[in-house]
Every structure is written in structure tokens, then in C-alpha cells.
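Reply to dn_fold:

You asked what the input looked like. This is it:
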Amino acid sequence: MAPPRRSSISRRTKETTVTAAITLDGSGNASVATGIGMLDHLLDQIARHGMFDLTVKTEGDLHIDAHHAAEDTAIVLGQALDQALGDRSGITRMGHALVPLDETLALVAVDLSGRGHAVIDLRFTAPAIGGLPTELIPHFLETFARESRSNLHVQLLQGGNNHHVAEATFKALARALDIACSEDPRRSGQVPSTKGAL
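and this is what came back:
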């Protein structure tokens, strides 16, 4: 039996306290409380559609704004994913998903390459969705990609409703991560790289 692929990371600063735990081979269970309702909703999509078990608890300086809480949540969640992947041996490594949500169509591609980089093409027509400023959504994704050491491409192909754009994007991220994190039995524990390491 392979050891369970899971991790838990905590981070405390003068601005936030964040704990995130992830189990890659989960059942889609989520317990998320960031203090930002829309961010909770988006992280719940990652768990449910990626079949990860995810626990996130963030306490932040929301009396200032949502920036620190959202950014630090992305940092800790990215680090938790990175740690849960270990040396990344045996994984599929790359995945992509095309997700519709009514008038919206979002494309996400991910490569768990060990190199953090993001190209995010999202368009919003409102300054915020619930208590989450829309400018923080690309920032969250960029931070998550850097901290998880993943190459992430996000492209909005169609979209009008801001809630749909955000939700379809995170559903596509979940599906792409599920594929990329999945174990490929043909690899027999080998790292999926000609370099021999990621």
C-alpha cells in the first residue's frame, strides 16, 4: 500500500493565521472557512470536483480588506498541495479541463512541473462578487501556482455573469488538478520528466 498523499500546512503572520490540509486521494469533502463567503464557495469547488479532501481555516484582517486573507490562503493551499505531491513520482503530471456554466466556458491547463508560473486570462465586469474583489481571483490563482510549483494557464473562452466566470474557472481548475495529480500505474513510481526530477 502506498502511503496516503496528504499534508497540512500552517502559516501565521501579523495579518493572518491560515491552516490548510489536503488529501489528494479523497472523496470531495470540504471544510472551508476563510471569512470570505465567495472564496469559501470557490475552494469548495476544488474539493468537490477534484475529489480532494480539503480543510482550510483562515483568520485575517478583514476589517482592512480581503487581500491578505485571500493571498495567504493561496500561499498555504499551494504549499500544502506541493507537500502532498512529495517528489511527484508516478503522477500523470499534466491535466486540462474545459468547463461550461450556462453562458460561461472556462479552460484550465496545469502542469505539476515543479516550476511555478501562471498565465491568467479572466475578465470580470464587477469590482466584487460577494465579499471577494474580482481582482483577487487572478491574484489567488497566480499565488497558488507559484507556491504549488505548478504551471497554470487559465483562459475564459466565453463569459458574462461574474459568479459563473469565477465558479467555472475553479471547477476547471479542480478537474485539471484531479487529472494531473492522479497516479499513473504505468510509471511505477518514476518521476514524469526526462530530467529525472521535478
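The radius of gyration is 16 Å.
Hope that clears it up.
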